């Protein structure tokens, strides 16, 4: 994967000014530049000279404990009650937990400011109060990569055992039966496997499936096509993936966009007799719809390691279904993975205590309140521009090159754009990923995904009272779901401003618009003619969809135009189709904010 180049330059200056935030920047010297009349250093935390104390509240692999003990005093105290944890924490600089310990606001308050880092030995951080951690200046780190191979291997194990009815045949023979004819399976060789979610685990599953002689396709709106091609995998659209696959393996995070992604509608588009494996998150499948698909024969079999509710109810129709192979969330449960998680989290905790920014941090360091107050509307604008831009990219293109332009009357030293860049990165990545993006890990996250982000300053004449005039985000070398979003430079382009404290979208492609970035947006490319606003507004009104803003940008009267419509609710697909059926409308897209 190509390394990301995070660069910054200012127009009309002789030398580019780099604002890249190194993942190894010492926390003891981390500060945000402020204007001279209120300049001060923002210190996230400073490592003490004395040997720190680390409380390990749940069992951790020996290799991880050894790393911790080489650097710190380690207190292994398991099965602590909430009261006991709050009592102990005031004597500790770091806390290491798994999923069984709740690190609540009371824990951070009881630490008296001494707790500097919480290490979660695993991926999920649901048991840690991130807001309280950030408020108390405590870094939270996790271990997201050590279980990659284990999860991929379990996916392949479920794939093969499902195809050959291993679990059912085992239960049958142990019940004293000998039913060879009942448990005839299917071969994997020559079959098409669709990997939905081509991240670390999905990639490893694809490698192993290729070794089994399978034809592998993948869908991931974010994965670069060249990385897929390197291992012989073709990136396709979601509909193409589910329509052609003999087997489907799920590896996407659970986000609002992926919740119940497999449902009655998507099952109906699948090849009859498809087989499904899920070692990702239970919520990506509508479990009731899966039962119906199994009963109808659309889905021949399913192998599931994860469920919407864990453990699932004892009377779960899905778990008890004879065509389902189920395991109790064993994806990361190998001796090697557990040891790897222990090492990964120990290294992250030790690095944080040394004053380094942890690459796996999931919360942000504290930022001066005056900076946050001033930049708050622009922070919101930055994230929403990122979200809009990535949704305008056609699936399979792969985002690699992003250019961010800031227009301001301020001198470069009086405008730190790292927080804005982090929020643009957040907007680009979070809608299609489970990673938490913030000021701590934004540059690392972009680099990890092979994204090259460049920053450019346009210096304006006028008063520097307002920190920014506009922000523009451009994504190069991609196809767009909405052709009018391609500007004259050939890039997907969106631009926004803050008006009266509210973020506004002011440009799409080469078209000037003006719509408040609240709710969601419908973009329509049309031939400019009378009555268009009324026609679209009438359709939305009939569907009880409230329109907050409507704006039309055009090249010239009666020529090409783009209509931007802000809506408070998501219209039904039928409503959007009616808009698309209006003769003068050439294309449209619905964008969630």
From TrEMBL:
Cellular component terms (Gene Ontology): chloroplast
Major enzyme class: oxidoreductase
Superkingdom classification of source: Eukaryota
Record domain ACT: where: 521-593
Pathway given in the UniProt record: Amino-acid biosynthesis; L-serine biosynthesis; L-serine from 3-phospho-D-glycerate: step 1/3
Chain intervals for the UniProt region annotation (Disordered): 1-20
GO molecular function annotations of the record: NAD binding; phosphoglycerate dehydrogenase activity
GO BP annotation list: L-serine biosynthetic process
Catalytic activity, reaction form: (2R)-3-phosphoglycerate + NAD(+) = 3-phosphooxypyruvate + NADH + H(+)
Subcellular compartments: Plastid, Chloroplast
Family matches, as InterPro entries: ACT-like_dom_sf, ACT_dom, Ado_hCys_hydrolase_NAD-bd, ASB_dom_sf, D-isomer_2_OHA_DH_cat_dom, D-isomer_DH_CS, D-isomer_DH_CS1, D-isomer_DH_NAD-bd
Keywords annotated in UniProt: Acetylation, Amino-acid biosynthesis, Chloroplast, NAD, Oxidoreductase, Phosphoprotein, Plastid, Serine biosynthesis, Transit peptide
Alphabetical list of PROSITE patterns matching this protein: ACT (PS51671), D_2_HYDROXYACID_DH_1 (PS00065), D_2_HYDROXYACID_DH_2 (PS00670), D_2_HYDROXYACID_DH_3 (PS00671)
EC number: 1.1.1.95
UniProt-listed PANTHER family: D-3-PHOSPHOGLYCERATE DEHYDROGENASE, FORMATE DEHYDROGENASE 1
Family to which the UniProt record says this protein belongs: Belongs to the D-isomer specific 2-hydroxyacid dehydrogenase family.
Subunit: Homotetramer.
Protein name: D-3-phosphoglycerate dehydrogenase
Organism name: Vicia faba
The organism's taxonomic lineage, starting at the top: Eukaryota, Viridiplantae, Streptophyta, Embryophyta, Tracheophyta
């Amino acid at each position: 994967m190509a390394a990301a180049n995070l660069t910054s330059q200012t127009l009309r200056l002789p030398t580019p000014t780099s604002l890249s935030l190194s993942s190894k920047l010492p926390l003891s010297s981390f500060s945000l530049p402020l204007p001279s009349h209120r300049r001060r250093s923002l210190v996230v935390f400073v490592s003490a000279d004395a040997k720190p104390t680390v409380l390990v509240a749940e069992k951790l692999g020996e290799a991880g404990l050894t790393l911790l003990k080489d650097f710190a005093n380690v207190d292994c105290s398991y099965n602590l009650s909430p009261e006991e944890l709050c009592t102990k924490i005031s004597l500790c600089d770091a806390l290491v937990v798994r999923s069984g310990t709740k690190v609540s606001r009371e824990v951070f308050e009881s630490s008296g400011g001494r707790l500097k880092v919480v290490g979660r030995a695993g991926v999920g951080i649901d048991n840690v109060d991130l807001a309280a951690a950030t408020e108390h200046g405590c870094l939270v780190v996790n271990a997201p990569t050590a279980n990659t191979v284990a999860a991929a291997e379990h996916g392949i194990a479920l794939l093969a055992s499902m195809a050959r009815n291993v679990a059912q045949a085992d239960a049958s023979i142990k019940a004293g039966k000998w039913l060879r004819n009942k448990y005839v399976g299917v071969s994997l060789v020559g079959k098409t496997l669709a990997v939905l979610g081509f991240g670390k685990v999905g990639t490893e599953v694809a490698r192993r499936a290729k070794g089994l002689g399978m034809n592998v396709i993948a869908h991931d709106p974010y994965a670069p096509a060249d990385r897929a091609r390197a291992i012989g995998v073709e990136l396709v659209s979601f509909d193409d993936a589910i329509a052609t696959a003999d087997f489907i393996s799920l590896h996407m995070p659970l986000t609002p966009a992926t919740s119940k992604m497999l449902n009655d509608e998507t099952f109906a588009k699948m090849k009859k007799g498809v087989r499904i494996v899920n070692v990702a998150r239970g919520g990506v499948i509508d479990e009731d719809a899966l039962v119906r698909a199994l009963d109808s024969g659309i889905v021949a079999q399913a192998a599931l390691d994860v469920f919407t509710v864990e453990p699932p109810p004892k009377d779960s129709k899905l778990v008890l279904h004879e065509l389902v192979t189920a395991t109790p969330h064993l994806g990361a449960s190998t001796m090697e993975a557990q040891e790897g998680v222990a090492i990964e989290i120990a290294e992250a905790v030790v690095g944080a205590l040394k004053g380094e920014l942890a690459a796996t941090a999931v919360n942000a360091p504290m930022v001066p309140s005056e900076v946050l107050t001033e930049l708050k509307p622009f922070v919101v604008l930055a994230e929403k521009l990122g979200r809009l831009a990535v949704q305008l990219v056609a699936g399979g293109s792969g985002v690699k090159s992003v250019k961010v332009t800031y227009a301001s009357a301020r001198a470069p030293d009086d405008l730190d754009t790292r927080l804005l860049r982090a929020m643009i990165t957040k907007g680009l990545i979070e809608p299609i990923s489970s990673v938490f993006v913030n000021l701590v890990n934004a540059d690392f996250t972009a680099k990890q995904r092979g994204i090259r982000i460049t920053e450019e300053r346009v210096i304006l004449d006028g008063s520097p009272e307002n920190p920014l005039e506009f922000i523009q985000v451009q994504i190069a070398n991609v196809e767009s779901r909405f052709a009018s979003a391609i500007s004259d430079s050939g890039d997907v382009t969106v631009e926004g401003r803050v008006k009266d404290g509210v973020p506004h979208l002011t440009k799409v492609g080469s078209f000037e618009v003006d719509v408040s970035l609240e709710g969601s947006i419908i973009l329509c490319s049309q031939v400019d003619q009378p009555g268009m606003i009324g026609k679209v507004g009438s359709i939305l009104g009939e569907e009880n969809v409230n329109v907050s803003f409507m704006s039309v940008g055009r090249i010239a009267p009666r020529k090409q135009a783009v209509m931007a419509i802000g809506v408070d609710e998501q219209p039904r697909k039928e409503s959007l189709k009616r808009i698309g059926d209006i003769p003068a409308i050439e294309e449209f897209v619905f964008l969630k904010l």
